[in-house]
Amino acid sequence: MMRSQSSTIPFLGGVGLLIISTLLAGAPLAAASNANHAAAPVAQESPAPLPSCPGLPGCALNLSVGPSPASMGQEVTASGAFQPCMGAQFSVQVDWGDGTIEVGAFHEGDPADDPVPYSFNHVYSSAGEYAVVALLLHQAAEGQDCAALAAESLTVEAAVGSITLEKSEANGAAPDDWTFQLEGSDGSSYVVGSGQTISDLPMGQYSITESGPQGWHLTSVSGEGCALEGQSVVASIVSGTESITCTLVNEVDSPAIVLEKYVSDDTATWYDADAPPGPYIIEYDPAFWTFVISNTGNVDLTTVVVTDTVLGEICTIDSLGAGTDQICTAISLAEEGQQENLGFASAEFGDYTVGDQDPCHYFGLGYIVPTLTPETPTPTPTAKPKGPGPAPAPAAPTPVPATPTPAVVTPTPTVLIEVLGVERLPETGIEASGAANVQWLTGLASALLTSAAVFGLLRRRK
After folding, report:
1. Which of 7, 120, 332, 421 is such that its CA lies 20 to 30 A from the CA of 457?
2. How far apart are CA 142 and CA 87, in angstroms?
């Protein structure tokens, strides 16, 4: 037979409901339900007196509560088993002593079964001494009876933890040069040095910021319960029993930026072309440009500006994270001869400005305009006279047409600039922007310019 504090006093018909209604200082038993009934937690200086329970012969109930002692915020389990003793239904009700009552599902007890296990979990929000009471409820046609009772006392201690803050010596940092400010969600605030511990901290989250030499930034933190959020650390005391150690790692600020510039005549093949001649592009055909801006430093950069000696302003990037890339593109019409463009990129970090430049080349092939070569006229033979007479007049010379001068149209190259979506550049392994959405504009411009040149040439021929 299992351990039990259940009463075996014979049930007195008609008084069961009256006794149950006075349990727990007048609080009625909960109705048969699986729902939990919660009230505002109330700390107890000493356990409340146990309710009376008439009991039913043959019914039994045991109870185990742990851990004991428990801490505020720590999960407590009340578990055990009960033995039905007669017909109808049975259920366990647990009163945690802080105003919270839970009732389990009802179980058929006819015929008598093996012991039925039960288990409930609870978290206390106040320290104190609590009496945890389990009642075995019997649901009969006349109402509910108390078939058995078991109780355990529980001590709940104030939940406190500790946080130790340490500065790592990695990257040449000197721990004594740093101090830490810890602020709790309850408004508490502490300032400590490296290696110091803050004790008796209630459960909750604590924000930690550091002060140290200029030119350093926080990169990582280690320790269970410690998390990096930007340039601060959040430490969490969950159960009230933790002793947390957060170790903060810093490194020297090192802002840097790299610019790589590429050119293409078809957006399929891209050329770095730092040295001439670069790719050959027909005059007035579109030249496509890609600018890859990389933050190779360990800090975020702001106000990134990209310009070009020929194309002008390319793009402006508000923020570029450490270790990330951004791509800008531009389109221009090719000019004849060897061409060089020099791209520039600049960015800011605090009071610092960093920059880089990269040249790019192409060779523009000019259009070949055909010239007209005049034909030498074939002389017409003059018939000889058959007899004496005056000599015929000499034939008039045939005029030689003048060589026409071809019309030359020299347009001013137009530059189309935009920041496009990113796609993979073939052969370079670089992500870059396509320019298909503006290619037709430059193709149309090239066709119009060529037509104008040919039209002028034909007019001269006429």
Report:
1. 332
2. 13
- Residue located via tokens 């007195």: 12
Q: Residue 175 has what DSSP assignment?
A: G
Task: Map tokens 């329970």 to a residue.
Answer: 53
Which residues, in sequence order, are bridge partners of residue 237? Answer: 204
Q: Could you tell me the residue ranges of all domains in the chain?
A: 16-157, 160-252, 257-369+407-461
DSSP per-residue string spanning 365-402: EPP----PPPPPPPPPPPPPPSSS-PPPPPPPPPPPPP
Class of the 16-157 domain?
Answer: mainly beta
Per-residue pLDDT 10s for the chain (462 aa) are 333 333 333 333 333 333 333 333 333 333 333 333 333 334 444 455 667 788 888 889 999 999 989 888 789 999 999 988 876 789 999 999 999 999 998 888 666 668 889 999 999 988 899 999 999 998 887 778 898 999 999 999 887 889 999 999 999 999 999 999 999 988 999 999 999 999 989 888 999 999 999 999 999 999 999 999 999 999 998 877 789 999 999 999 999 999 999 999 999 999 999 999 999 999 999 999 999 999 999 999 999 999 999 999 999 999 999 999 999 999 999 999 999 999 999 999 999 999 999 999 999 998 776 666 667 767 666 555 555 555 555 555 555 455 444 444 344 444 444 433 333 344 444 444 433 333 444 444 454 445 444 444 444 444
Quick one: CATH architecture of 160-252?
Sandwich (2.60)
Which CATH code is given to the segment(s) 257-369+407-461? 2.60.40.10
Q: Does the predicted model carry a pTM greater than 0.70? A: no
CA distances from 118 to 94, 124, 191, 235, 248 (A): 10, 20, 48, 36, 46
Judge whether 426 and 267 are in contact, CB under 8 Å: no
- Same CATH topology for 160-252 and 257-369+407-461: the answer is yes
